[in-house]
Amino acid sequence: MLSYQHIYHAGNLADVHKHSMLAWALAYMTRKDKALSYLETHAGRALYDLSDAAALKTAEAAQGIGRAADWFAPDHPYSQVCARIKAAHGDHAYPGSPIIAAESLRPMDNLTLSELHPQEFAALKENMISYGGVFKQMDGWEMALSMCPPEPRRGFLLIDPSFEVKSDYQTIPKIIAQIHRKWGVGVIMLWYPILSDGPHKPMVRALKDTIPDGLNHEVSFPPAREGHRMIGSGLFVVNAPYGFAEEAADLSSLFSRQLSGPM
Ligand code: SAM
């Protein structure tokens, strides 16, 4: 049973972390004149209206992109995508990862997205109509296992689960290792939440044991509201592009500098 809906969380500080690194990585990878494949297991609806009652209810966007928008230089790929989406759809519009990817890709690149939730899938197809791509209403894990290695082999796989299924924490390291064995050159980026009781810790240990040269990057932030368990955001990246670690370190400094003052 799928109950998670990203509209309640879109534009929060975890999205700022994941989306700014995604935009940076794809801007870097598309500098080379060689086609790439972009795949995403858990796509969501791609475009969010932050004035929607659901987004206002949690106020996570206000705590997130609401104050982080000017943390980034205007020529940062994340600022540029956010600005283009606002210009096209209005001031309250916020891009999800599929639009961030599609805005970076070139006509020679391939985009494949899966999303299981029927309403989210319908919205995804509608919101992505001007970009094109292959959209699959299917389990993202099955999509990744059946489509990797993709053609062209040079590529990026984003895995951004909702962690509604508690066994995800145990199965994710095994699935990522399986995909990595089949697709040695693929960049694989997993996002995970950092919750106050630390359910991610054994998963991250297992990922590091299986893929020792994977890059792990975490940022912490105050809970969006009292009692909220999410206190940070993590990425585990296989075959991280050149310069990713430096960009991530800059982002860590930005998070701690910007969040150290009064809230
Ligand atoms: N990646 C999106 C972004 O950053 O804009 C947000 C995705 S949201 C965290 C997770 C999405 O995964 C939800 O839309 C949910 O409906 C979907 N989902 C949950 N289980 C899934 C599965 N097994 N396969 C594909 N999609 C799934």
Over all CA atoms, what is the radius of gyration? 17 Å
Largest sheet: 7 strands, mixed
- What is the fourth-level CATH superfamily? Vaccinia Virus protein VP39
Ions, cofactors and other ligands present here are: S-adenosylmethionine
What does the model show?
- This protein has a seven-stranded mixed beta sheet, sandwiched between helices. The chain has a two-stranded antiparallel ribbon with strand order 2-3.
- The protein has helices spanning about 15-30, 55-60, 60-65, 65-70, 75-90, 95-105, 120-125, 140-145, 170-180, 200-210, 245-260, and strands at about 35-40, 45-50, 95, 110-115, 135, 155-160, 185-195, 215-220, 230-240.
- Helices cover about 40% and strands about 20% of the residues.
- Strand 6 (about 155-160), helix 9 and strand 7 (about 185-195) form a beta-alpha-beta unit.
- The model has no long low-confidence stretch (mean pLDDT about 95).
- The protein contains eleven helices and nine strands.
- It is α/β, with parallel strands linked by helices and about 260 residues long.
- It has one domain (about 15-45, about 95-260): Rossmann fold (3-Layer(aba) Sandwich), CATH 3.40.50.
- S-adenosylmethionine binds next to loops.
- S-adenosylmethionine (SAM) binds near residues 2 and 140.
